[in-house]
Each structure stands twice: as structure tokens, then as C-alpha cells.
Amino acid sequence: MSTTRPYSPGPPEPSGASGVPEEGAQAAAEGGTAAAAAPASGGGAVVPLSASGDAAASAAGRQIRRLSFDDASGVVPMARDFARQALYAWGWLPSATADQRATAEDVLLVVSELVTNACLHAEGPDQMWIACDNKVIRVEVSDRGAGQPAPRTPHRAGRPGGHGMFIVQRLCLDWGVVRTPGAPGKTVWAELGAPA
User: Considering only CA atoms, which of 155, 57, 75 is closest in space to residue 119?
Assistant: First the structure.
């Protein structure tokens, strides 16, 4: 699994915890909050897709929702509830089949693991983005931590704790870390495939 893909799924929404199609977020970003200036990892910048990548993502129907954790408590259940609401809005829930239900549960588990990891190892999460198109859901969690998340090796199932990134690695198509040079923090991302 890659852990260094140097891009994010596109510009975050301007502010607040909302969901709009990506082209709406892009228009809002162009209207005053440029994607390059949006905080992605503790004051860093989101690395935007190229203009052609934005157009392709909009044409593909990608939607993005952003949740800010400013001064929040109970961030893990908050993040799960936010992701669950996005899954309902995007038609991934309620699930018609066992495969669809398992995929939605995997998304919620990955959200929990990424946010928990930020709480335990990186001074807490700053923001979470969840993006969806017809084939992939991408989850990103930004924090101010300097550490590099990695699955424990060797993985020992009987050991208490330390399973978060192993779970993410096993459930996801790919995952990685994005850092902005000279800025503190990072964004940890993970991608999961749509149900069959």
C-alpha cells in the first residue's frame, strides 16, 4: 500500500460541516477561499488537483463534505455520525445487500480509526473530509502531529491496541499521508471501493 500519494481529493468546502457537490465547493473556493489557502494539516495547504482533474472530478459527480473539529469533544462519535449522514445522502445507506452494508460499515470503521489515531498520536484532529464518486469513498483527517502513521509490524492480533492502521490498510484500496513542506501537521487519507 502506498503511503505517500501527494494529493488530496480536491478542494475542501469553504467552512462548516456541510455537503455540496464538488463543483459547488470549487465555485465557492474560487469566490474567496482559494483551495491553496485552506488549512489541510494544522495550517498547511490542501494540494489541489489540476484544473483538468477538478473538471474530471466534477463531471464524474464527486461530492465532498467537510467537518471541522474546532473545540469539539466526543470527536470520534461526531465523525462517525457525520460520515453516516454523508452515506445516507449519497445513497450508500440504507443498504440493500449484505455487501453494501459491509462496505458502509467499513467506511465508518475507517473514519473511527483515522480520527482515533489523530486523538491518540497527533494532538487531536483538525478537520475531516469525506468525498464520494460512483466508485470510491475517500476519507481524510488532518491533524497537527508530526508522527508518521504506520501499521505495527509484526502485527499481533492478541496485543491490546495498535491495530488502527492495520485495520485501515486491510480495509482500504489505498491510504497515505500528505504533508505540506514547512507546515506542521499532516493529512492522513484512505480510499474504499464502492459496494458491488
Answer: 75
Total Cβ atoms within 10 A of residue 47 = 17
Which residues face 13 on adjacent strands?
Answer: none
pLDDT in tens, 42-56: 333 333 322 233 434
Contact yes or no for 184/146 (Cβ under 8 A): yes
Per residue in 56-100, pLDDT (tens digit) is: 444 457 899 999 999 899 999 999 999 999 999 988 899 888 988
Spacing of C-alpha 77 from chain mean position: 15
Q: How many CA atoms lie within 13 A of 153 on its CB side?
A: 4
Assess contact for 21 and 69: CB atoms under 8 A.
no
Q: How many CA atoms lie within 13 A of 122 on its CB side?
A: 25
Half-sphere exposure of residue 35, counting CA atoms within 13 Å on the CB side?
Answer: 21
- The runs of H, that is alpha helices, within the chain are 22-30, 51-59, 75-89, 98-121, 164-171
